[in-house]
Structure formats: C-alpha cells, structure tokens
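Objective 1b of the project was to move from sequence-level analysis to a structural picture of ligand recognition. The entry below was assembled by the postdoctoral researcher (A.K.) and checked by the PI before modelling. It contains the amino acid sequence of the target and the SMILES of the bound compound, pyridoxal-5'-phosphate.
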Amino acid sequence: MSVTSLPHTENQSAAESAPIPFFSQANAFRRLWPEIEARLREVADSGKFSHGAQVARLERRLAEYTGAAHVVGVNSGTDALILLLRACGLGDGAGVLVPAFTFVATATAIVHAGGRPQFTDIDPVTYGMCSDAAERAITSRTRAVMPVHLFDRMADVAAFTTLAAQHGLTLLEDSAEAIGMRRHGKHAGLHGAGGVLSFFPSKTLGALGDAGAVLTDDAGIAARVAALRHHGRPGATIGHFPAINTGSELAGVNSKMDDIQAAVLIAKLSILEQDIARRAELAAAYTERLTGVPGVRKVPGPVRDGRDDRDVRYVYVVEAEDRDGLASALAAAGIGTEVYYPVPLHLQPCFADLGHRPGDFPHAEEACRHTIALPLYPDLTIGDVDRVCAAIRRHYTGTTS
Ligand SMILES: *Cc1c(COP(=O)(O)O)cnc(C)c1O
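Corresponding predicted holo structure:
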C-alpha cells in the first residue's frame, strides 16, 4: 500500500459533496504510516510472522494500558470469547446468561465452547443486559453470566458482580467493544474471571484485518488460553508463559495472532487516548445537533468520564422513526450508516432450538427495530457531523434549519 494513493480532500467544495463513509481510517494510517512501515519491515526481516516478537510486545503494552495481569493475543475477538469460555470450563451444556441484543458472536461463542446461551432482555436506556432480568432467567443449569459493554458505555458491572456472587456464577465480560472503558478504576473485562478485546478494523482500536485478545488477572485462565490458541501446546507459547514442551494436553486450535496486525496495533495504541478524546468531541457535536430533531426518538445519554469511571464512544447510536427510511435517505446523500443489530439473538435461525418467540424480550426487539449507528471515527470532521445532522433534519422536516 502506498501512502500517496490514499484519498485526501482537495478543497472545501469537494469536502462538501464527498461521500461520508460509515467508517474510514485513511487519515489515521497516513499519519502513522512511517512507524507502521518500520515495524512491518522488522516483521518481514524476522522470519517469524505470527506469534512472534510484535505479538509479545503488543501483549505487554496492552497489559500496561488496561492494568490486566495477563493479555493473550489471538486472531479475533470471537476466538478470544470461545477460548476464554473454554479456559473457564464452560462446556458440557453449561448455561451462560447473555443479552438478546448484541453481536451474534457473543452467543455463538458459547455454543462453540460447548455451553448453552440463556438469553435475557436489556435495559432500554443503556442497551446493557438487565441484571434483574438476568436473575429471573437463572436455572439449575446456569453456570455463568456474561454482560456485554455495548456501543458507548459499560453494563452495570457492580450489579453483575453481586448477582454472580449470590448465585455462585462465573462472571465474564464481552468487552470486545470496550477498550478504554473503566468502572471503579478497573478496565472493562477485569471485573470477573476475564474479558476480551476485538481489534476488528472498525473497533476503537482497529487492526488492518482481524485480531483479538483475552484479558484476565487469573494466571491459570491465561495459561489455558495461551495453550488453546496454539494447538494446546503449553510450551509453544511466547512471552511470559513457561517454555515447557510436554505435548498437547488440551485440544487446541490455531488462533495465533499475525505479527503484522500486532505491529499495526502497537502504532495505533500510541494514539488511542487522542482518538478516544476525538470520538467524545464528535459524539458531543452529534448530540447537540440532534437533540429535539423530530423523528429522532432518542440520542445517547451522557456517559461517565472521570478518573475511575470512563465510557468510550465506540459507536454513536440513535433511535429513529422509520429507521430503514432514514438509512435509505442518508445512503442517497452519500452518508453511510449501520444497523447494529437488526435481529435479536433469540429470533435468529441459528438459535431456533432454544424455542424463543417474538415478544420474549421486548426491549431487545424494540432496539433492533429503531436503532441506527451514524459515522463516528477520528478521521471525521465537525463539518461532516454538520452534514450528517442536516441530512437527518431534511429527511424528517424537509428543511435543514
Ligand atoms: C466485534 C464484537 C465481537 C467479535 O469480535 P471479532 O474480532 O469481530 O471476532 C464480539 N462481541 C461484540 C459485542 C463485538 O462488538
């Protein structure tokens, strides 16, 4: 890839009509390219292209950033969930409570680990799993609870910590979207047995392809994930894990992280805090412009932003009347949007065997009908936000003022 081939804005009038994609990181890459290029050369010269020195370095940097005792790099957020669940022994039909409104991988990971998802409804204000609903869903087979930190805020981890303790459940977090988020001074993913990070390109810390990691303070869980990601070979791991080679005890998989992804992520981690601050500015600009616009039923509420508690605007989601009509109108204006998530998990065909019906989780179903995510990434300008908001206003009122 050549830096000079990346698109850039020529002048003001081009900026006024240029499409606004749902996601882009072209500017971020242009800025970081010299550092990334040097690291990629190092990878090429090293002769070790996955599971090598860049991956070990990234794991150390992420441990510093999150405060996790152990960070284990794998090849996606989905694999991180599967291996974390397996490392916690949640197979053999173990029931794991999860929200019905989340990315499908939250629940398919449970199936792949050998467990059984138990869906619950969400809090309609925060979109996080509702702890009261989760408590009502507990059965004799329930062994774990896995809230998801969705969009721009953490689920109520204090409530889930109490719930897990009262019912003897393992607490895990699907913190795939939650890098940079903290509650009570503790990073997302570290409030129970462990959590995950996804580095899918559009995530707050995105790679140039797929990558993920497990976060945990538990040395045993970390060692098992480290073995599982590499064919179950306990010694054939990197970094701070012991170098013994006794053959495979666990039936592992190949979920090694590529060093080129680790190299990209190390460079991007160095500007993550700037990116998070930029996201907050852009989100505040959206909220200011969209509050009170007819047709926009709900804009995100304020998030926490303090020393011990911080949420991060990963995506900017509003609830809209005639959501699909709005998406089409914005697409016609060259503005990309995304619907996370159009179908609640309990109504997806792959979970038909769980026997759920429409109406089982009304808040999740309502969120699926009305939510729409607007473009939000550090490359975006306030002028872009103005254009998106003007197009939304025009769709509902026929005028931009
Ligand atoms: C992105 C995401 C995942 C999966 O991560 P991948 O890296 O894409 O495999 C899992 N759960 C949630 C909530 C996510 O947003």
